[in-house]
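Sequence only, no structure available. Ideas?
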Amino acid sequence: MNKKLENIIRKLKEEKMTISTMESCTGGGIANQITNIKGASSVFQFSAVTYSNEYKVKLGVSSKTIEKYSVYSMQTAREMAKSISDFSKSNLGIGVTGKLGVPDYNNNEGKDNEVFICIYDRDLDKYNDISLFVNSEDRKDDKLEIIEVLVDFLYKYV
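Reply:
I predicted one. Tokens follow.
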């Protein structure tokens, strides 16, 4: 994964592009992996871990979207991605939300272990959607799987 991330960072530098993340179920894991790469500071703008609905809304996700589709939806991931791109003025914004096998009494909707990822390309006004199911017994392994899927997509995209 590190080689792919190094190539992504290099390509973003060459294209003079920036990237930011708004993460929920990955808990900042994407930002961590990006910032483990030497030179990432030239392309990585900002990251927010928004576990609560309140802070998703404070950073630009519509409460109506969460009410209508649930916090565990592609619509919410899309708004997270666009909101973080707008907030940070990044070319690419990444939004990730999902329920990793633990009951969420504040948000009863959504399937267990279903994850929604969106990469918003501000320059093209384009949403790139990825959804997947994870089901390891270990949250750490689930997070790594989500990050690997995202990195694979970004590697091909940039």
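The chain has a mean pLDDT of 95.
Hope that gets you unstuck.
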